[in-house]
């Protein structure tokens, strides 16, 4: 498989001298095209900071992030806007939908900002709406939706530009268990059928069990890596191995969750 993303010696420090906080401390890993990677760790371990560096929301202190061999720090102006607007998609924990816009307008927003709404994108929104089971919600407003519906709308917005990488920050964090399971099944299907590359930050072992590989982060550094043993390893078996690492990571899973 083709290598799509490389993170090399990434560091993000806050503060000065004796008051420095090492949010990310020398993280290195690679992502292959079509992988579904989970990033796990306790609160404050640096996992969301890592995701935000990849999204170019946060500027790293040191290290490099390469997308297909290109250093993201060299992206300026139009190229940076293109990266943020169409080459990555971002799925937020709290939906981040605009209340006075319809579902359809919310989904098309990333393309509208960059004047990229065309016939192809309109076909894409129809496809996503059917796939995520929100086709009957297009003219509704966010206040009329359930939490599960809002997150599926948010997922459609993140994927409408057919991004090379989908970044998801605690996508099940604001959902009940039923809606969380439904969303994770959809993300897994998108990963398998569309070969979409997904990086997902989560504290939820159930959500993580849908991934193909998991990076565990502690104090800003990679503590352990876990791969699904083979395609036939059940979700339950993978879940149990995840719980085992979490217990080691936090001295008991309660400290991690």
Which secondary structure elements does this structure contain, and how are they paired or packed?
Blueprint: E1 3-14, E2 21-32, E3 36-40, H1 47-54, E4 62-67, E5 70-71, H2 77-87, E6 88-91, H3 103-113, H4 119-131, H5 147-159, E7 165-169, H6 177-194, E8 197-201, H7 205-208, E9 213-218, E10 221-227, H8 235-250, H9 253-256
Parallel strand pairs: 3-8, 3-9, 6-7, 7-8
Antiparallel strand pairs: 1-2, 1-4, 4-5, 9-10
Helix pairs in contact: 3-5, 5-6
Keywords:
globular; Rossmann fold; 38% helix; alpha/beta; 257 residues; single chain
Structure notes:
The chain is an alpha/beta fold and 257 residues long. It has one domain: Rossmann fold (3-Layer(aba) Sandwich), CATH 3.40.50.300. The chain is built from 9 helices and 10 strands. It has helices spanning 47-54, 77-87, 103-113, 119-131, 147-159, 177-194, 205-208, 235-250, 253-256; strands at 3-14, 21-32, 36-40, 62-67, 70-71, 88-91, 165-169, 197-201, 213-218, 221-227. The strands form 2 sheets. It has a 6-stranded mixed sheet, sandwiched between helices. Strands 2-1-4-5 form a 4-stranded antiparallel sheet, with helices on one face. A hairpin with a 2-residue loop joins strand 4 and strand 5 (70-71). Helix 3 runs parallel beside helix 5 and helix 5 (147-159) runs parallel beside helix 6. The longest helix is centred in the last third of the chain and has 18 residues, at 177-194.
């Amino acid at each position: 498989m083709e290598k799509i993303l490389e993170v090399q010696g990434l560091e993000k420090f806050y503060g000065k001298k004796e008051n420095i906080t090492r949010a990310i401390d020398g993280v290195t890993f690679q992502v292959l095209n079509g992988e579904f990677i989970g990033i796990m760790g306790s609160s404050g371990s640096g996992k969301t900071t890592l995701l935000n560096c990849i999204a170019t929301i946060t500027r790293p202190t040191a290290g490099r992030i390469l997308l297909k061999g290109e250093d993201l720090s060299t992206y300026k102006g139009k190229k940076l806007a293109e990266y943020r607007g169409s080459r990555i998609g971002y799925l937020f924990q709290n939906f981040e939908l605009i209340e006075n816009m319809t579902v359809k307008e919310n989904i098309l927003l990333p393309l509208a900002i960059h004047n990229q709404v065309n016939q192809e994108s309109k076909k894409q929104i129809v496809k996503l709406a059917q796939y995520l089971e929100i086709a009957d919600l297009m003219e509704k407003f966010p206040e009329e939706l359930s939490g599960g519906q809002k997150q599926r709308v948010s997922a459609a917005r993140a994927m409408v530009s057919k991004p090379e990488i989908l970044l998801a920050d605690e996508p099940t964090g604001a959902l009940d268990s039923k809606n969380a399971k439904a969303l994770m099944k959809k993300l897994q299907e998108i990963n398998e059928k569309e070969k979409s590359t997904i990086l997902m930050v989560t504290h939820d072992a159930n959500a993580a069990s849908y991934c193909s590989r998991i990076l565990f982060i502690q104090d800003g550094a990679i503590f352990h890596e876990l791969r699904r043993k083979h395609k036939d390893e059940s979700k339950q078996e993978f879940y149990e191995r995840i719980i085992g690492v979490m217990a080691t990571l936090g001295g008991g899973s309660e400290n991690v969750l």
